[in-house]
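Progress note, sequence design subtask.
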């Protein structure tokens, strides 16, 4: 009830218990409530706890990321669309897991296979970790490396000039320092959106007074409000994109024998580029090789010309 009203007690409890944000805190509360209710009423509780869910490795096809961008792909799309300019990244592996491996873990939990759940639960009830085990954590690229490779791909495709791609890579490296990140986030992510929102609101008022395209400016103000919410994502991502130490999970989940970190990076980049171009369309590929071949023919010179890039 406190969380539904002013939330002061809930926020205090969240910080005292060590949760980095409301997302993780509310998930933990939901898990406890489900286990408590099921223990009292009798039905078995099966909770599968994934880390950051990324594009599929194999099924239904390599790189499948749903019908809208989320998590890592959403961050990459925002950078590709210039919605934000900098995320905080570190050298530690990203706590990501392909969505098809999570789906397999869910099916195992429903079937009651896979051994004892995490957290010491017995029988078929409890929490199961659908995460990459600590023994394979280094097989997942760091968020910083993923974004650096994204800038390279966007520059090779001609979506970014070499100058802009290099500048974004420099911002990414600077942001590893926490103080520098907070300053860069304010200057590069938050402040431009705030200024644009104020200008858009002023133009909307003037247009309404003069009867000139008031509805158009109203729609633009809604878009700026949406962009304002997006500008807060780099701060929300920070505990996961730039952990001070590597995330280490104990899990029975193992990466496939044909796993390739570079190829999985390409799958993330392909999904981001696709959503950036057409947010409602996800391409299909019949094999991992075909998916990787989507990047085989890249322009190595940006369309803005060699002279501008040299400058």
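Output:
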């Amino acid at each position: 009830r406190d969380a539904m009203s002013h939330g002061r007690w809930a926020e205090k409890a969240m910080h005292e218990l060590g949760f980095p944000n409301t997302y993780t805190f509310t998930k933990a509360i939901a898990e406890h409530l489900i286990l408590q209710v099921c223990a009292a009423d009798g039905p078995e509780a099966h909770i599968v706890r994934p880390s950051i869910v990324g594009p599929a490795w194999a099924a239904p096809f390599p790189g499948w990321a749903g019908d809208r961008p989320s998590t890592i792909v959403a961050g990459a799309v925002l950078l590709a669309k210039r919605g934000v300019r900098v995320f905080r990244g570190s050298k530690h592996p990203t706590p990501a897991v392909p969505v098809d491996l999570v789906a397999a873990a869910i099916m195992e939990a429903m079937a009651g296979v896979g051994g004892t759940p995490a957290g010491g639960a017995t029988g078929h009830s409890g929490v199961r970790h659908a995460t990459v085990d600590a023994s394979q954590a280094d097989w997942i690229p760091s968020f910083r490396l993923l974004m650096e490779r994204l800038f390279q791909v966007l520059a090779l495709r001609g979506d970014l000039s070499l100058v802009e791609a290099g500048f974004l890579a420099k911002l990414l490296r600077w942001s590893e320092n926490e103080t520098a990140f907070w300053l860069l986030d304010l200057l590069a992510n938050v402040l431009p959106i705030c200024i644009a929102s104020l200008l858009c609101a002023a133009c909307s008022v003037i247009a309404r007074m003069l009867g000139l395209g008031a509805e158009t400016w109203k729609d633009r103000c809604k878009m700026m409000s949406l962009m304002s919410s997006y500008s807060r994502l780099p701060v929300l991502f920070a505990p996961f994109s730039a952990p001070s130490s590597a995330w280490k999970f104990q899990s029975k989940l193992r990466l496939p024998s044909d796993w390739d970190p570079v190829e999985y990076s390409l799958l993330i980049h392909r999904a981001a580029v696709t959503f950036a171009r057409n947010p409602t369309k996800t391409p299909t590929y019949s094999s991992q090789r075909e998916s990787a071949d989507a990047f085989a023919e890249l322009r190595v010179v940006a369309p803005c010309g060699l002279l501008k890039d040299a400058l």
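The radius of gyration is 22 Å. Work on this subtask will continue into the next period as scheduled.
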